[in-house]
Design goal:
Elements lengths: L10 H8 L3 H8 L10 H14 L5 H8 L4 E6 L7 H14 L3 E6 L4 H13 L4 E5 L8 H8 L4 E4 L9 E5 L1 H15 L4 E5 L7 H15 L8 E3 L8 H16 L5 E3 L3 H13 L9 E3 L5 H5 L6 E3 L2 H20 L8 E4 L2 E3 L29
Parallel strand pairs: 1-2, 1-3, 3-4, 4-5, 5-11, 6-7, 6-8, 8-9
Antiparallel strand pairs: 10-12
Helix pairs in contact: 1-2, 1-3, 5-13, 8-9, 10-11
Amino acid sequence: MAQRKSGHVTLADVARASGFAVSTVSMVLSEAPFSQYVAATTREHIRAVAQQLGYHPDAYARSLRRRRSQTVGVLAFDLSDPFCIPIVRGIQASLQAANYLPLLMDAQAERGLFDRYLQLVLENRSEGLVVIASWIFEEANLLTDLKKNHVPIVIVARDWTARGISSVLVDNEAGGELAMRHLFELGHRQIAVIRGPEKLFDSAPRWAGAQSFAAKAGIRLDPRLVFQLPGDLGPTSSFEGGLKFSRQMLDSNRSFTAVLAFDDLAALGVVRGLSGAGLRVPEDYSVLGFDDVLPAAVATPGITTIRQPLKEMGLQAAEWVLKEVAAREQKSEPTPQLYKAQPELVVRMSSSRPTRKSSSPVRNQPPGRDQSQMG
């Protein structure tokens, strides 16, 4: 059997090697209904030759014939953020089960890349798009262009149902309440808070939930112990913010026994900052995060956090986008849907009951000293 010099193995190559017409080979390998009329020995011979040559169906050619790409774009705001990875895995699992290929794109928190990838989704005729972003540039008109071209879109981590786009996110307000409740039930009353960046969709509802529970429980949140992460969306900005603010908390000489951080990376930054000052978590201060990304689980101490069911959110988003693809084929216009996942408290080592009376922060205590005896 002659060896091919270059390129993918085609139906024509299989036809030449097997001695049958391209139409017969195509009928057999695609298992078309009329292939049952081809002799069994012929079918077996064609399949054996195709396997020997390493033939695989040409999805691109098939998509041109069917005018279907069998692909869904997955645009993540920043794949270096551990928040994105479980969502992507959920999306991939759902698309794979439906024989769709995910086209994974990383915007790296850059507006230019975000817009360019949206253009590529249009140019490459992706059948749908899932966007993972708790922020989206408000003036991103390309999303509107996608809708005009009847490309189904689902947003993860932001509510855009008012713009006709189905959305999947966690109930951030409930999560903020849950976080504050946990610290309250442990006995904490003087709690420092690190809010999220103003531009992030999650920030305001999480803060609202924390404030709501604090008001109901009679906790006064000292405004001098409330900090806000900057708008920079770099991969380490939350961690660096937590580290910086932990130092400011200590320098303020304001009394606190716990820190409620916007996300797990900020919580890890707080732990680093307190440790650098000779303080221990949770013996001196409790620290609580949000999201339940992998670093929170494997850190020492493990971070108590509010879990978002990230993989399940990805599965839901992909399921919805595929349903909208099917609806488009039926010439119907689906109604935008909103799914708010319920948050869950995950208790680890970073939170405990206050072990000493609240007072001004104390630094650089000998590791073996009993903090509970300090005034």
